[in-house]
Amino acid sequence: MPPIPNRRVLFNEIPPADGYPIPGKTTVYDTSAEIDLENAPLSKDSILVKVICLSLDPYMRSRMRKPDVPGYVPPFILHEPISGHGVSVVLRSRNPHFKEGAHVRGFMDFAEYCIIEGDGFPMQSLILLKNDLQLPWSLYVGILGVPGRTAVFGWREYVKPKARGVAFITTGAGAVGSLVIQLAKRDGMKVIASAGTDDKVNFMNELGADVAFNYHTNSTKDILREHGPLDVYWDNVGGEVLDLALENAAFSASFVECGMITTYNSTNAYPFKNMFNIISKNIQINGFLTRTLLEKHEEEFLQIIPKMVGDGELKYREDITSGLANTGSALLDLLTGKNTGKSIVIVNEGNSIGRFPKSVM
Ligand SMILES: NC(=O)c1ccc[n+]([C@@H]2O[C@H](COP(=O)([O-])OP(=O)(O)OC[C@H]3O[C@@H](n4cnc5c(N)ncnc54)[C@H](OP(=O)(O)O)[C@@H]3O)[C@@H](O)[C@H]2O)c1
């Protein structure tokens, strides 16, 4: 078979810290590369994969920086493909753990095909997917991937739910927030949840939120005053809303610092007024990275969550972009709140392998 096109998304330009990544400028869709699927050389332990789907995530913004700027994830390399969590199928293998035909989840390039070298971080991140429940592969970058684990691990580790207590969850219609709402309801809590559109508010109501509101058209301050005090605050946004949550916290509240998306495209620090409440209200405040809780909570996650998703007991939404060409605008949508649910790029056919769970919204 002659070489075939291998379309990719390249990191093209570092955006200013105070601004959004611009599609076609920060990242570009590249159609110039080719790959010989039969003869492309594979070093020891490496594999050649066909990418099925890729996850777009808020943390990717922090990888768009100069190489000498420190960060908790490595920067993207200029003029190389951007990378992220994805699912792919192995086409050729020199690795005994990942045989031809196997499906894998982990770090991979935003490309139609890629070689995952035997000795790097992407290979270390790879997990073999068995998918006994025959669910669409895209779930493995969403509710059964990092966002699902983030919600479940963070909730299990840091929240001591008080039945009939009050939990406030921001970006409640997103990949992480929508599952946190469901976990809080299952633990018997009253849930206040915010998001940026009325459509998202409807979704949060369907998930069982007791007080779902659009923070663009309602005052978060008034709503927290009316429905608080907060026993739990799940923070995905940081900034002013975190300050308001501190103001409205109950004594000994649990604050889970999962994300601060209001700060990702800006260098303006919010002038906090209520920080001393952390002490005076005895607030337990925990930031976390999902990977640090993997060892402790993974087994329970695998035993419980996939079956609940397959049975329709846990709901989710996906925001699908077909093909790599629109990756840049889909990432911008995620960072400006235009996504509705887990943002996923479907790269190659083969996503819908079996049945769709009952709860696809
Ligand atoms: N700690 C960890 O290990 C970890 C792992 C995964 C994710 N996270 C964090 O979890 C949070 C949610 O991630 P996700 O993957 O589930 O994304 P998501 O909620 O599906 O999408 C991001 C959402 O953030 C909101 N948003 C965007 N810009 C905003 C702004 N300037 N102000 C307020 N809200 C804004 C938008 O929703 P609205 O319409 O509601 O504004 C947007 O839909 C992020 O902060 C992310 O960094 C943390």
Automatic annotation (TrEMBL):
Residue ranges constituting the Alcohol dehydrogenase-like C-terminal domain according to the UniProt record: 175-301
One function term, GO molecular function aspect: oxidoreductase activity, acting on the CH-CH group of donors, NAD or NADP as acceptor
Entry-linked Gene3D superfamilies: Medium-chain alcohol dehydrogenases, catalytic domain, NAD(P)-binding Rossmann-like Domain
Keyword annotations from UniProtKB, A to Z: Oxidoreductase
PANTHER family per UniProt: PROSTAGLANDIN REDUCTASE (PTHR43205), PROSTAGLANDIN REDUCTASE 1 (PTHR43205:SF7)
InterPro entries tied to this protein: ADH-like_C, ADH_N_2, GroES-like_sf, MDR_fam, NAD(P)-bd_dom_sf
Name the UniProt record assigns to this protein: NAD(P)-binding protein
CDD domains in the record: PGDH
SUPFAM superfamilies: GroES-like (SSF50129), NAD(P)-binding Rossmann-fold domains (SSF51735)
Domain Oxidoreductase N-terminal, first and last residues per copy: 38-120
